[in-house]
Write a structure and sequence with these properties.
Length: 245
């Protein structure tokens, strides 16, 4: 089992511009999740600025959007190239971007109100200690937001093979099924680290749309390609947990 995480370090401005690349799907998916996350923070935190850590921040889609809402944001990643892109696209010039290992975070206990790990867990081959680190850097009652993929045949066909077959410039082993997580597994991992899962909701592409047809024909992702939330957790799923103690 090996996963190609180096792909993300070499994208450059393609993080924000490429259509003939799976990163365009990531941008589309991020638009859905970011709106949901911001609304959840408004509802549960009353709009107050939060100290937020974005783990595996990549090109800064989420971190920069959070900063524009007035939050104090730190983004960490192991890809210097991705971090350089994230900094260039930080309109607020307030996000702190650091090269750091998520399994050994350089932060004190209770440093953050919120930790985010979007499209990260399925890229982490060595998970031991990661959720313990999340719980450590969260204050009591702090929120942990996540998005990852379910491990099953349908997810393998759609998320891995479907992207390889239909999206141009998809690298081999961008995702590997062994690193996907069944929702019950993630819930158990969270519980073991002192994190109580409050919400899980499914995420999938909107199938009955013209941009989907264009993708299947051209191999490129239309700017209007959309994802939606669903009750089924069979493919991707996101949610949040709180630090229990």
């Amino acid at each position: 089992m090996s996963i190609d995480n180096a792909f993300y370090d070499d994208l450059g401005e393609r993080w924000y511009t490429a259509a003939d690349d799976p990163v365009a799907l990531l941008r589309a998916e991020s638009r859905l999740r970011t709106g949901w996350l911001l609304e959840t923070l408004r509802t549960r935190r009353g709009g107050a600025p939060q100290a937020i850590l974005d783990v595996g921040c990549g090109g800064g889609f989420l971190a920069n959007a959070l900063a524009e809402e007035g939050h104090e944001v730190t983004g960490i990643d192991l890809a210097p190239g991705a971090l350089a892109v994230a900094r260039r696209h930080d309109a607020t010039r307030t996000v702190t971007y650091l090269t750091a290992d998520a399994r050994h975070m350089p932060f004190g206990e209770g440093r953050f109100d919120v930790v985010c790990a979007m499209d990260f867990l399925e890229h982490l081959a060595e998970r031991e200690g990661f959720l313990d680190e999340v719980a450590r850097v969260l204050r009591p009652g702090g929120l942990f937001f996540f998005h990852t993929f379910n491990r099953n045949l349908l997810s393998h066909l759609v998320v891995i093979k479907g992207v390889e077959w239909f999206v141009r410039n998809t690298p081999k082993d961008m995702h590997v099924i062994e690193l996907f997580l069944e929702p019950a597994e993630l819930r158990d991992y969270c519980t073991a680290s002192g994190l109580t899962v409050d919400v899980m909701r499914g995420v999938r592409p909107r199938i009955l749309q013209v941009p989907m047809l264009r993708l299947l024909v051209s191999g490129s992702v239309d700017p209007n390609f959309k994802f939606l939330f669903t009750r089924s957790l069979a493919l991707g799923y996101c949610g949040f947990a709180h630090r229990s103690f």
